[in-house]
Fold:
Amino acid sequence: YQVFSETKRFGHSVKRVPRVLLVEDNVMNREIAARLIRHIGYDVDRAEDGEQACDILEHGRMFYDAVLMDIRMPVLDGYAATRQIRKSRDPAVRSVPIIAMTADAFDEDIEKAREAGMNAFIWTTGRVKTQRKRRTACGMKAKRKGQTAVRAEGRKEMDRS
Structure:
């Protein structure tokens, strides 16, 4: 199936395929995530660190529907990159939804992501026991090994503006 997003350009609605910027320093994780994103019908561009992501968003010619941002990266981590993006002069860049990605899903990590200006939090882990604990703590049912858990905070938690 194909997913479309509507964009207003020059007063007309234009249908287009949604585009995501994937920011991940690990080559293997970046490739796997890019495949998954393309599989659901989105276009994906990649950045290796937060500094590269900020440069792409500020100086690139693409409009992004969302940014999937790894937290721990060299050069500029996900928190610092998000804070920089939120200070952009361009309102489209400043308001792009940023989703934190990490293997850590502790309350402190989620709070740091919120404080940095991220809109949601995704985590993955291969350890079944840890994954079950985290899901149970979040009120989610435990799933099979290798599946991804998503925690997108509502207005109370993530969108305190």
Summary: The chain is about 35% helix and 25% strand.
